[in-house]
Amino acid sequence: MSEPTPRSKLKVLIVEDHTLFAESLELALNLEGYDVQRIPIPEEGGAQAVLSAVVRLRPRIVLLDLDLGGVGDGVRLITPMVKAGANVVVVTASNDRARWGESLRHGARRVLSKSQPLNEILSTVRRINQGFPVIDRAEREALISHWHEQGLERVALQRRLALLTPREEAVLGELMQGRTVRDIAASSFVSEATVRTQVKAILSKLEVSSQLAAVGLANTAGWQPPQR
């Protein structure tokens, strides 16, 4: 195991768009003696700007949020950051365990919830600097497995959604907007009986028993009605 880097020379980069949380984290790390920098999150062209900053600043550790406003999903930044030589620790408000697993699969050292004490983040930074593991192997594999299984489930849901006709897709899209059978019939200039028949076909193809379940399935699959 290599000697730890002196804290004053250990560069930690914070990539976080929630200002109050970022400032608290920066203050805590400064008090621990680390060389801390926080980069602003640009509104446009954000991903490339963030990655360019990582390459330029060459931090040993990056504390990365997953929801970065205009930059979008922070998961896609993990692999390039790791390739640039950074140890990436995800610090997120998301409780989606599959998303945690995806982050680990892309190379993050650990995923921490923002609801945890700052001391847990500081402890993780210390352990990385000391060359110690920061996540139990079984926990890591379980999270990655959960992400993989959810991905397979989403594929299965998308296959069901692909069975819908263009008209059924349009009806499902309107149900997702909270419109009733009566609303859909009126705007489509068809009878309510016709729309009910279409809804029945949707439920059958999606293998669910209610309109609410159909909408939930579409949202889980990340489905949006095609623009026509």
- Category from helices, strands and their pairing: alpha/beta
Low-confidence residue ranges: none
Strand order of the largest sheet: 2-1-3-4-5
Task: Please give the largest β-sheet.
Answer: 5 strands, parallel
Q: How large is the count of helical segments?
A: 10
The coarse silhouette is: elongated
- SSE order in H/E notation? EHEHEHEHEHHHHHH
Report the C-alpha radius of gyration, rounded.
23 Å
Please tally the β strands and state the result. 5
Mean residue pLDDT: 92
Share in helix: 40-55%
End-to-end C-alpha gap:
60 Å
What percent strand? 5-15%
Give structural notes.
This protein has 228 residues and is an alpha/beta fold. The protein has helices spanning 19-31, 46-57, 75-83, 97-105, 118-130, 137-161, 166-176, 181-188, 192-206, 211-220, and strands spanning 11-15, 35-38, 61-64, 87-92, 110-113. It has a five-stranded parallel beta sheet with strand order 2-1-3-4-5, with helices on both faces. The mean pLDDT is 92.
Can I get a quick summary?
The protein is of the alpha/beta class and 228 residues long.
Secondary structure layout:
Blueprint: E1 11-15, H1 19-31, E2 35-38, H2 46-57, E3 61-64, H3 75-83, E4 87-92, H4 97-105, E5 110-113, H5 118-130, H6 137-161, H7 166-176, H8 181-188, H9 192-206, H10 211-220
Helix pairs in contact: 4-6, 7-9, 7-10, 8-9
Write a concise keyword list for the protein shown above.
alpha/beta; five-stranded parallel sheet; single chain; 228 residues; 55% helix; 10% strand; 10 helices; 5 strands
